[in-house]
Amino acid sequence: MALEKNGNGTTKSKHIVLTSHPNRFGPKPIPIHWGASDPLKRGAIIGTLTNSAQRNVIGSHSGAYGIYRALAVASGQLQADHRADLTNTAPADLVGPHAAWFDPQKIVSLDPFGALVGELYASLYETGYDIRPTIAVTQAHINMPELVEAIAKGRLQVDGKIMKQGGDLVVTKAAIEPVWYLPGIAQRLGVTESDLRRALFEQTGGMFPELVTRHDLHVFLPPIGGATVYVVGDPAAITDPTTPLAVRVHDECNGSDVFGSDICTCRPYLAHGIEACVQTAQEGGAGVIVYWRKEGRALGEVTKFLVYNARKRQEGGDRADAYFARTECVAGVQDMRFQELMPDVLHWLGITRIDRFISMSNMKYDAVIQSGIEIVERVPIPQDLIPLDAQVEIEAKKAAGYYSNGAVLSALGLAGVKGRDLSE
Amino acid sequence: MALEKNGNGTTKSKHIVLTSHPNRFGPKPIPIHWGASDPLKRGAIIGTLTNSAQRNVIGSHSGAYGIYRALAVASGQLQADHRADLTNTAPADLVGPHAAWFDPQKIVSLDPFGALVGELYASLYETGYDIRPTIAVTQAHINMPELVEAIAKGRLQVDGKIMKQGGDLVVTKAAIEPVWYLPGIAQRLGVTESDLRRALFEQTGGMFPELVTRHDLHVFLPPIGGATVYVVGDPAAITDPTTPLAVRVHDECNGSDVFGSDICTCRPYLAHGIEACVQTAQEGGAGVIVYWRKEGRALGEVTKFLVYNARKRQEGGDRADAYFARTECVAGVQDMRFQELMPDVLHWLGITRIDRFISMSNMKYDAVIQSGIEIVERVPIPQDLIPLDAQVEIEAKKAAGYYSNGAVLSALGLAGVKGRDLSE
Q1: Could you say which of B103, B158, B254, B291 would form a disulfide bridge with B228 (CB–CB 3.0 to 4.6 Å)?
Q2: Is B335 assigned a catalytic role?
């Protein structure tokens, strides 16, 4: 094998290893026993790119940002063998563990030990293993105009600890990268692991041949966005059965969440969810917002905008009775968010009961209930928070099974709920 | 070859083709002549997954959302051979073309024809090719609390056409997926195409072996987030040399953009940029916001939160003189956004001069100028929009070269700019 010295004196192969097959003679990577309660027996997730013999997963860390890392290495700005210095990065809170961490079926799409690798695998790290956190937990103050308005209108109170003067809200937050245990994902979706692996390979245009060649590796770091968790109030209250818990699970909608587009209810419902979290925390409980990077029902924003045009231009204009059909024409499905995987993050937090579930989605509700978490009350979006042009969406969703405490429209009624045309 | 009938009567190979090599005997895919002005000579971007002989790119459409598409196919919800019905999806505006579209060096990271494939390649589509838009253009009304406040305070006026009663802002918006012409990307970064391909393969844990085996395919659809463009005012004014243009190029920061975290200036500066866009549009010009999916300087949010903890906990606390060092410890670089590729979207819009550039970033400024676009004025963030805890960031950036019309602090001054500790 041709070797060359690189800049900092280490040697590097000139050969490109196309697909790494299990080493027949070399050292075996640390095995992963998913669901084991002893972190060392469970095994660290090792997605290093510097020592391929140590890798025990398919894919790499940081999701799709690995592409940018590649540009940084190609252009000489990042040393390919850089190993993260984890000094002072340990979680600010939310450390667990909870019973669900050790149930191999409760959590299959994230690593429950992901925030604690610096402590749990210190011995491996010290011997040179390139181990990286897949979860990071920090604390922050956030300030949203909607919360400031809620204070001004008397719906929220400043208490000086959770909600500070001026509307600053104190939160603990966690960023979570997906870590997929493929046998568990397959089981959750009701397919064989082999069919899942094949689809993941083929439907991405051939990403990661190891999905179909390395059946000895069962953990996949998919290059998709993960989730961010915001906790309001005392994190200990999340798992305390005597205190109330409010939860909103929100799927990214950049056009509304950031820019306030009036075609949907995303940001208004998110703000309402945070308001409910603050109220519940001030009652001595806690509030949890989970923000998932699943733009446009996980179809992406290009598809979303194509559907907007098709809705606005179809014969009869944008109307609730044709709301889902237009998405299906363009995308082949109405929705691709797979809420079946979503409850994992709730189990990571140790949640077993949600007192106020700030969502009307029957898909989210069903997934949470089926995962064994109790939901006491469902809170729909207040009517006065729904933008005029978003009536099409909300009435279509209610007719399709979304939770509502009001009337659900008939087919004729749905046809009468119309949105704005393009250029209006 | 073993064939089986699937549900809808078509046949499907049971074999998995691991890495598709150029077909020696079969029909060749449509060649791509990057930069050609005739769309048919340039060639359609074909990332179909149903007919591998027709593919002329590496990767697949919808970026990372291809992973969710794989779940939909695996679970039987989406037919693997679904082809998008593009009826009524054509762009609502912004159709071009502009001179830069036909300069193979001006645009290398998106397909300038990407919004028009339904029209330009209708003949191919009708003969069965699975051709998909990589850009979608629609129109919307947006409403942000900051803009409503700007109206209340008299900084913005309601004109009934651009800014409507109640603060509804009329915009044209475009979602753009990355389409990378690898020789052009390599040239932009100053590396060989071969080194770029190798890094993209190796630094992603072996994603897409075709990057290193298929040197006949030069176009790559990377599974990363793209950009969203918001245009305020008459899109024709963007390229009219007699009317003013305001531009902000904004990189995603979910914690601030959506939740209003006070550790940085992202959302306040974005809102200020939109305000400048409205003012410029009302003067008869136009305003452009480009929103890039590059969370945490394209390092991802887990890395970002790890860095927050390291900043807050380091000896001496969070301070401007150690701002960049903490990112470098964890990530190996200070920044991974590669602004070198960013101006492509401005060239797609036909921009040649920016009157008001709402950004202090020297990296963005340099990239825009070097791409041949003139910048008349740079507009820093107003001091009263900077959250208290974000002083650490803004002072560190100014000392590192960010544009400012005020004083830049000395090393001693930087050490004195301190942020909040964790748990404060």
Answers
A1: B291
A2: yes
Q: How far apart are the first and last CA of chain B?
A: 66
* DSSP for A26-69, written as a single string: SPPPPP--TT-SSHHHH------SS-GGG--SEE-TTGGGHHHH
CA distances from A31 to A45, A46, A55, A187, A240 (A): 9, 10, 10, 21, 35
Q: Sheet harboring A219-221: ordered strands across?
A: A58-59, A219-221, A180-181
Regarding beta strands B286-292 and B245-251, do their DSSP bridges make them parallel or antiparallel, or are they unpaired? parallel
Total residue count of chain A as it appears in this document: 424
Model pTM?
Answer: 0.94
Q: Answer yes or no: are the C-beta atoms of B18 and B11 closer than 8 Å.
A: no
**Tokens 């660290």 sit on residue:** A44
CB spacing of A145 vs B149 below 8 angstroms: yes
Within 8 A by CB and 6+ apart from B207, the residues are: A59, A60, A66, A207, A208, A223, B200, B201, B223
Q: ipTM of this predicted complex?
A: 0.94
Assess whether B216 carries a catalytic annotation.
no
- Count the Cβ atoms, other than its own, within 10 Å of residue B324: 17
Using the beta-carbon criterion (under 8 Å), do B262 and A224 form an inter-chain contact? no
Cβ contact, residue pair A262, B143, below 8 Å: yes
How far is the C-alpha of B15 from the C-alpha of A86, rounded, in Å?
Answer: 44
* Cβ atoms of residues A144 and B259 within 8 Å: yes
Residues in B closer than 8 angstroms to A66, CB to CB, are 203-205, 207
Q: Looking at the complex, report in whole angstroms how far the Cα of residue A310 sits from the nearest Cα belonging to chain B.
A: 5
Q: What are phi and psi of A281, to 5 degrees?
A: -65, -40
Closest CA to B232 of B358, B377, B384, B119: B358
Query: Per-residue pLDDT for chain B (424 aa), expressed as one digit of tens each?
Result: 333 444 343 444 567 766 555 554 456 899 999 999 999 999 999 999 988 899 999 999 998 999 999 999 999 999 999 999 999 999 999 889 999 999 999 999 999 999 999 999 999 999 999 999 999 999 999 999 999 999 999 999 999 999 999 999 999 999 999 999 999 999 999 999 999 999 999 999 999 999 999 999 999 999 999 999 999 999 999 999 999 999 999 999 999 999 999 999 999 999 999 999 999 999 999 999 999 999 999 999 999 999 999 999 999 999 999 999 999 999 999 999 999 999 999 999 999 999 999 999 999 999 999 999 999 999 999 999 999 999 999 999 999 999 998 888 998 899 999 998 887 7
Q: Are B244 and B276 in contact (CB under 8 A)?
A: no
- The residues, any chain, with a CB within 8 Å of residue B48's CB and separated by 6 or more, are B54, B55, B129, B130, B131
